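In the previous lecture we treated proteins in isolation. Real proteins rarely work alone, and many bind small molecules. This record shows how such a complex is specified: first the sequence, then the SMILES for flavin-adenine dinucleotide.
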Amino acid sequence: MTSRNRDGDHSLGMDRPITRRQFINGVSVAVTGSLLSSPWLKAYGVPGSPFQFAPEKDPGYYPPALTGLRGSQEGAWEIGHAMRDGETWDAIGQEADTGESYDLVVVGGGISGLAAAYFCRKAAGPQARTLVLDNHDDFGGHARRNEFKHGNRLVIGCGGTVYIDTPSSYSPESIGLIRELGIDVNRVYQYFDDDFYSSLNLGRGVFFDKETFGVDRLVVRGDSTLAEFAAQTPLNPTAQKDLVRLSEGKKDYMPGLTSDEKKERLTKISYRDYIRNYVKVDPQVITYLQNRTHSLFGAGIEAAPALDCWGLGYPGFQGLNLEKGPYPGMSLTTVPRGTPGEPYVFHFPDGCGSISRLLVRALIPESAPGNTMEDIVTARLNYARLDEDGQPVRIRLNSTVVRALHRGDPQSAKEVEVTYIRGGKAQRVRAKTCILACWNSVIPHLCPEMPEKQKTALVYGVKVPLVYTNVMIRNWTSFQKLGVSSVSCPGGFHTGFSLDIPVSMGDYQFARTPEDPMVLSMIRTPCSPGLPLREQYRAGREELLVMEFETFEREIRDQLGRALSTGGFDPARDIEGITVNRWPHGYAYEYNSLWDPIWPEEKQPCVIGRKPFGRISIANSDAAAFAYVNPAIDQAYRAVQEVLKKA
Ligand SMILES: Cc1cc2nc3c(=O)[nH]c(=O)nc-3n(C[C@H](O)[C@H](O)[C@H](O)COP(=O)(O)OP(=O)(O)OC[C@H]3O[C@@H](n4cnc5c(N)ncnc54)[C@H](O)[C@@H]3O)c2cc1C
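The predicted 3D structure, ligand included, written as tokens:
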């Protein structure tokens, strides 16, 4: 589905003055141009001395409130790409040496990097000097928040990481950290109103678009049976019947095979091929289900192993009578974990953005008021306090690391020199130890002296590109009229959208009445079905970096306008703000039985890649090939144990 016709721009509201476009157009440009296009550089100019650039000290510096293209924002990625393309910063003069020396320098201020700083301070004591460097204008990596204002009312959205997923599956170290930050996951049950939307008779809907299905039609699932639902869709009669047949899944489509033999075969075929060649559904059912796997796999059902889809409870497998439990080659995401039946409710109004905020407050108490998991929700972080002289822990944003080199032979060196680009100039610090909590693919560029085998292993995985868009709407009466709280869009630019998660915490109240302003969450996964999986991810990343905000905006307005039109939604009138969180380097790459060998653990690229190298250790979720918060923390813990031995 796509709205190419700009004649309708006026009715979509493209000319309306909403909060948007402060940051526009992440167009790939040459290094100099890109540096100058960084919003913070535009605002603060290119200073003569490398140390004069300090936008974070401005009282108005508050990245969560920025709208437009966020996530990997303009100015955050260009240096990294120039480094990838061979740009070097070898001719750095002495003036770039900050003279600073740390016990630990952490590259990457996501949950893993912040957790590494936390564990290090806990083990080494409060006097340990730590510097965290991150290329973005905000901390938290994927675990970030977006803020909007409606009059004086603060409306919070989640910019990336949403849930503390199955906390009962967390390791002692990761759940221990969560508890030490003051998070009592059980208290979330009180704050999360699980029945809120159903109590208003709002449920799920599906929007069929005319480009894909011949007609624009929103079909509300409500209390109807699947057969009743299917009958209302524009699918042809055979597809309607097949949808029901697939869902009932009564038949054994692999007769004569044992459970293990079936599982073995299902690891090697995609879900699409299973339902096409074994269940033999009408092609329209495949079109209908094509993007069902996008939000987890970042790709369609042709790239998702059938066995993983069985693990996720997708339809069509009941008659196979597969034995419960994991099977070699299943993705870590689909293997059951935690206490069975554990609900999916553990998050703050900003998703896991508050975990990052709590970590920052724990590391630098002056950065935010308060001391509870509730008061962090509305606390305004003081970015000016993140990087101050004399503080044992400093967080330096807008700083892209381009080198982490031992001073001398990596096996005997006593120090690592870390060089980063900030405000368009190179700066250098020294550290007794260094943890790279950035993405695996970046590490070989930072450490060219690393063994080739390790570098090859580090670049094996390709992170999954995806977009989390937040749209601030002035009210949600159209949803109430239509009886939906979430809508999936099988042919949509965004694969679906939903009303915000109903969680109130501390002073923050979610929008209880349909007349209240609300944040809509939308997900987009740029896929290229037909390409090998990792190529799809690379292509999606490129697409995200060149797509202009205006294109996102037009698609968002068109999609919402058409899907909700019968409820009276008017995109020109009802949309008050848009924040597109693009994550070209999103989820950590998880091994997939269709596309990767089934390695024993010690042969997995992530295990080979995360070996310590001299005084440098490696954290981040890529090091576990597992795209969740807990591996990010676990890898930080391991990396800290490694560097403590070197300190
Ligand atoms: C949209 C989205 C939704 C998600 N939802 C969930 C969820 O609901 N539940 C869950 O458990 N997990 C979820 N995840 C996964 C989870 O967010 C991650 O596993 C976790 O946050 C990763 O943390 P990290 O610190 O390892 O990496 P990141 O968050 O990526 O942090 C790494 C940081 O290093 C920085 N960096 C990279 N290179 C450099 C450099 N050269 N110099 C300086 N800095 C650099 C990066 O820009 C980044 O800020 C989601 C991920 C995404 C993208």
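Summary for your notes: The pocket of flavin-adenine dinucleotide is lined by residues 80, 107-113, 133-136, 141-143, 160-163, 165, 400-401, 437-439, 442, 466, 468, 583, 586-588, 620-621, 627-629, 632 (CB under 6 Å). Residues 272 and 301 are 5 Å apart (CA to CA).
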